[in-house]
């Protein structure tokens, strides 16, 4: 299946069958890595994300004085800086990772010293005003480059705020909470849509007190953090590619062990159920307040139906929308996505790239400023896919390729390693050909 390093040929499959245990959740690994590096003591994690994005977070935290010791393939030990980082002599390279850049900015704004954050070409195009505004409202000194990275931070003591971000973003919420953690008084973030709550749960796991209401989170600073030992749950956003693949094949049967099932992340299971897939959840457990369980999916014999994703659920499903759109042509009634304008400012313009690549495979698709209409009942053919260096586009179209006629060449397939380096190997494992 290998052609060149950057390209992968994906052949159609007859069925999807097997059992998987996925590497640790990217969002949780970022938070555990960052908080452990900031806390007092030595934290130990197993099943830590293998993705390049989380490696960027660890490298930044190492440059700021934390000690990172990889004790096994997915096991790490982190010795924290006990609340006081050492300013790095070099710019902190956040790579492709928006989470690293936005969250670390909040962590560093109240620290002493000057910090420069840089990223790759994609990250350097992504909007950063959304963190500058709240941090400046707290009194931080932050300079962007035309609204983007590089970011210069001149650390200084901050003041607590009560803030409602203009976009629903867990990264922005986390940025403010990490600044609030180190700031006297109570900092509150209000959200119209409840975004993923891993930061709130992780801060509590590391010993902080965090107050929550239905639509707000508050933290009274300053508070110290203490090291923990934890196993990171499997990444449900990585599972999404396999769940959607399984949904396409009547007779499929796929089981995921120890999958993260945090309710703010699990909306895809509802969508797949609405499409007609059968989902069973077993062995539910809580680990550091994160829900973990076994998930089994089987597809309906007469194919999957149709759905519209709009309103708050579009924000909660934001990372899963590319793969849902990519399987849209194989549904009976199509997939309609709205209120997902944020997709345009992810690692790529995901609305434009999904539309372009679906068309390359011969699909009919209508593009809107905030979404897509993908009619169902279509037959696609293999094509050359341009991932735009975006991991979720590369993986979404590898899934679409499984039901296409002929082979599909995924260009920039190596980008899968941003979140899920094992993706193509696991796809070969469960795709029956
Ligand atoms: C993430 C939040 C989301 C998501 C990203 C990870 C997080 O971004 O798209 O992949 O870990 O907080 P936004 O906060 O920009 O919506």
CATH topology grouping of the largest domain:
UDP-n-acetylglucosamine1-carboxyvinyl-transferase, Chain
CATH architecture descriptor text of the largest domain: Alpha-beta prism
* CATH class categorisation of the largest domain: Alpha Beta
DSSP helical segment count:
13
Strands in their spatial order, largest beta sheet: 16-17-15-2-24
Strand content: 25-35%
- Quickly count the domains: 2
Radius of gyration: 21 Å
What does this structure look like?
The chain is α/β, with parallel strands linked by helices and 433 residues long. The chain has 2 domains: 7-24 and 233-432, Enolpyruvate transferase domain (UDP-n-acetylglucosamine1-carboxyvinyl-transferase, Chain); 26-230, UDP-n-acetylglucosamine1-carboxyvinyl-transferase, Chain (Alpha-beta prism), CATH 3.65.10. Helices cover 29% and strands 26% of the residues. It has 13 helices and 24 strands. The chain has helices at 26-38, 52-63, 98-108, 129-137, 170-180, 198-205, 236-247, 267-275, 312-316, 321-327, 350-360, 391-401, 423-430; strands spanning 7-10, 15-20, 42-46, 67-70, 76-79, 92-93, 114-118, 141-145, 148-154, 162-163, 185-190, 210-212, 216-221, 229-231, 253-260, 278-287, 290-298, 306-309, 334-337, 366-368, 371-374, 384-386, 408-411, 431-432. The strands form 6 sheets. It has a 5-stranded mixed beta sheet with strand order 16-17-15-2-24. A 4-stranded mixed beta sheet has the order 4-5-3-14, with helices on one face. The protein has a 4-stranded mixed beta sheet with strand order 6-7-9-8. It is globular. It starts with 6 loop residues before the first strand and ends with a strand. The mean pLDDT is 97. Shikimate-3-phosphate binds next to helix 1 and helix 5.
């Amino acid at each position: 299946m290998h052609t060149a390093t950057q390209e992968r040929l994906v052949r159609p499959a007859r069925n999807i069958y097997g059992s998987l245990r996925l590497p640790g959740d990217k969002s949780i690994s970022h938070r555990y890595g960052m908080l452990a590096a900031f806390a007092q003591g030595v934290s130990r994690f197993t099943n830590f994300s293998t993705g390049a994005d989380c490696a960027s977070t660890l490298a930044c935290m190492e440059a700021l004085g934390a000690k990172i010791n990889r004790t096994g393939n997915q096991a790490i030990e982190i010795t924290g800086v006990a609340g006081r980082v050492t300013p790095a002599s070099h710019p902190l390279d956040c790579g492709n990772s928006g989470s690293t850049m936005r969250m670390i900015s909040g962590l560093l704004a109240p620290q002493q010293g000057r910090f420069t954050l840089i990223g790759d070409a994609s990250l350097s195009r992504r909007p950063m005003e959304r963190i500058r505004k709240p941090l400046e409202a707290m009194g931080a000194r932050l300079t962007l480059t035309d609204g983007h990275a590089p970011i210069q931070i001149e650390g200084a003591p901050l003041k607590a705020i009560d803030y409602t971000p203009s976009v629903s973003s867990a990264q922005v919420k986390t940025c403010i909470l990490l600044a609030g953690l180190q700031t006297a008084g109570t900092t509150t973030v209000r959200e119209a849509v409840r975004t993923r709550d891993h930061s709130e749960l992780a801060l509590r796991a590391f010993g902080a007190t965090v107050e929550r209401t239905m639509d707000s989170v508050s933290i009274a600073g300053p508070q110290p953090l203490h090291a923990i030992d934890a196993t990171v749950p499997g990444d449900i956003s990585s599972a999404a590619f396999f769940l959607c693949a399984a949904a396409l094949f009547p007779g499929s049967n796929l089981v995921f062990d120890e999958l993260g099932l945090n309710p703010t992340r699990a909306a895809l299971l509802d969508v797949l159920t609405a499409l007609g897939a059968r989902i069973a959840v077993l062995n539910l457990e809580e680990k550091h307040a994160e829900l973990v369980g076994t998930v089994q999916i089987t597809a309906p014999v007469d194919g999957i139906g149709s759905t519209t994703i709009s309103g708050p659920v579009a924000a909660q499903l934001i990372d899963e929308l590319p793969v849902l759109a990519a399987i849209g042509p194989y549904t009976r009634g199509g997939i309609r996505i709205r209120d997902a304008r944020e997709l345009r400012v992810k690692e790529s313009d995901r609305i434009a790239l999904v539309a372009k690549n679906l068309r390359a495979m011969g699909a009919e698709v209508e593009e809107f400023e905030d979404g897509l209409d993908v009619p169902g009942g279509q037959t696609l053919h293999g094509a050359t896919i341009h991932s735009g260096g975006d991991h979720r586009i590369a993986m979404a179209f590898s899934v679409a390729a499984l039901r296409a006629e002929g082979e599909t060449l995924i260009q920039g397939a190596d980008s899968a390693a941003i979140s899920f380096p094992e993706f193509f190997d696991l796809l070969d494992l469960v795709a029956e050909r």
